[in-house]
Amino acid sequence: MFPKLYAIIDVTTLAARGGAEPLLQRVCCFARELAAGGVTLMQYRAKELGAREMLQHARELRRILPAEVKLIMNDRADLCLAAGFDGVHVGQEDLSPESVRAIIGPKRMLGVSTHNVDQLRAAAQTSADYLAIGPVYGTVSKLNPDPVVGLEGVKAARELIGLERTLVAIGGIGPEQARDVLQAGATSVAIIGALLDSPRQSAAHFLSILL
The domain at 5-210 falls in which architecture? Predict the structure, then answer.
């Protein structure tokens, strides 16, 4: 079963928050706390790092986290394989889903971001294991976010793809909105900002609401 809470480790955001520890240590500490809070699905996203540093982070995350924690690499199918991750998530400007599938094979997970009905309809025709829709609410995790889709956008996405496909909602979702987003039709909520402070407690709080 797909987890109801999908945590995104956004390295750019973690780096911007500062701290005396090296970035790798901060990333790993954050991930450990998420896992301690009950998170079993995490995406590693590092838009501003080079491939070598990303791979170093990814391999260390795979080493320190329990096997039951599934790790998804944002964008980079090659680094997913090199780090032993469990899947890849791509956006609209990345490699096509089928190109990624050809690289990672049939057993690893593949997710695709969508922001409107046309993108969602196209993604639904691919071999993606899950489809993401958003931003549901306003978000500060991207410099140039797409237009907000709201709960109506989540409902429309569910109607379009049917009941069997996994739908992940993302964008500005906090504990107060999480249950509404699931009721609108999402299988899971992907969270960035609302997990940054006290990640262990924040994750546990989300799970208490979602489960």
Answer: Alpha-Beta Barrel (3.20)
